[in-house]
Amino acid sequence: MAPVINVDFQNCFIFILLCFFSILYYFLLFKKPKLDCDLPPSPPSLPIIGHLHLLISVLIHKSFQKLSSKYGPFLYLRIFNVPMVLVSSSSIAFEIFKTQDVNVSFRGLPPVGESLLFGSSTFLMAPHGDYWKFMKKLTVTNLLGSQALERSRGIRADELERFYKNLLDKAIKNESVEIGNEAMYLSNNIIFKMLMGRSSWEEDDEAERARGLVIESFALFKKLFLATLLRRPLEKFGISLFKEEIMSVSRRFDELLERILVEHEEEKPSEHQGSDMMDVLLDAFRDENAEYKITRNHIKSFFIELFIAGTDSVGQTTQWTMAEIINNPNILERLRDEIDSVVGTSRLIQETDLPNLPYLQAVVKEGLRFHPPAPVLARTFQEGCKIGGFYVPEKTTLIVNVYAVMRDPDSWEDPNEFKPERFLASSISEQDEERREQTLKYIPFGSGRRGCPGANLAYIFIETAVGMMVQCFDWKIKGDKVNMEEVAGGMNLAMAHPLKCTPVPRAPNPLASILQQEMLRLNLDV
Ligand code: HEM
Description:
Elements: H1 7-28, H2 52-55, H3 60-71, E1 74-79, E2 82-87, H4 90-99, H5 130-144, H6 146-151, H7 153-172, E3 177-178, H8 179-196, H9 201-204, H10 206-229, H11 231-235, H12 243-266, H13 277-286, H14 296-327, H15 329-343, H16 358-370, E4 376-380, E5 385-387, E6 390-392, E7 397-401, H17 402-405, H18 430-438, H19 455-472, E8 473-476, E9 486-488, E10 493-495, E11 500-505, H20 512-521
Parallel strand pairs: 2-7
Antiparallel strand pairs: 1-2, 3-11, 4-7, 5-6, 8-11, 9-10
Helix pairs in contact: 7-8, 7-19, 7-20, 8-14, 10-12, 12-14, 14-16, 14-19
The structure holds protoporphyrin IX containing FE (HEM).
Organism: Arabis alpina
Main location: membrane
Cofactor: heme
């Protein structure tokens, strides 16, 4: 009978293996960096494991923040033989992204090359080369650029209304909702429709299955991070960490997406309502003269990463922002006044209202500053260079502590307070403008050419979802305040106690006619 190895034992076994191979590696292969090259300052380290012991914490951004407040905003660290620099100040982040943008436009080797998930066919892990440039152009033109977003506006309006009706249903039945899950469901459905241009998923549950796989991928993320970090030292010994688990999710994604691809290829032109992202990519796949010859795996990997990049991040930000709003009734009141005066009370908020709702924009921006879903960014220096007067050797991993940069007291007034007003034009002084020129202080979407291409879409998702929830409902919670404790979720910074609350239709309800129809549908008294 095959031996049963439980998870703890497995982790312990991996740890012992790691230590063993690191010792070997250290003695046989590891070359110390030259001591005369003025590396950035480094906290005391231990033999072999380097600074690993300083970073063992559930909340990695907090461990990094503790290190930087003790030893400085620019540090040289080593985990086993993997060298890293840790950046925690906006001025150093500015210098790196201004002078070394191309040099740091590579995220590092993928943990398992052949996986569709974070493998070598992904856009996210692709080096800054021909494939990445080709896909970036297609993405901006057909999916995420401002003109493409205008074309897909109808999809988002329909889904926002569906989201509203779902909340209304819960409100009428006096049931509570988990805001993060509901917002993630909304963004997942929208992204699915924007990519596949189809609504038939409602019948055969494909979006739901994609969502299930995305959730499994989040659970894998911590392992993926470790596997990426340790790929270099371990591959010399033929070890690929967590390969089976990663490949299992990859295979199930492959099955689902191959089926959708084939269906899409077989659809008659009359069944298409204009071309969607899948058509665009299939055309590029068939085009013998395309600037870059993409493969089917490129298409599948790209879809997977858009599901992953665009759903949980939006869900988490929406729930953090709603939690701040519920905890600050004065913010709720000001937001509602703004929405009522711009949108009125006879229709639902729409995307086209957003430019006229500066306070809503400021609240969402502050939500992203205060609770960045991706609190830490990782890239790789491909060449050695000088930063802040120090030398950074080639192949050094760059870690930017986004969380610390956006709470850097040198750049932000009252950095540990939730103050949306700081983003209103009227409160930005000339001095702030000048300071902004020399720093890179607001980076929830990263920076430079590898910065997030979905930022505009993300703002639309979160602003319309938060706007609608404030416009149409009051929110009942258990207790007086929402508990704002953090936990490292699968991939993003999550709430330790996910926000669960009950929507109560606002009186007078801005959309009384929809409320009446819903009550009739549910056979309740109007
Ligand atoms: C609140 C929502 C979001 C946040 C906070 C966020 C944040 C980020 C961050 C920090 C990065 C890495 C940037 C860097 O290395 O400088 C990134 C990359 C990326 N994001 Fe987002 N993102 C969000 C939503 C989205 C959405 C909605 C999409 C698309 C549907 C998307 C697609 C991507 C892609 C494709 C990349 C990889 C870009 C590249 O490697 O060139 N993201 N995102």
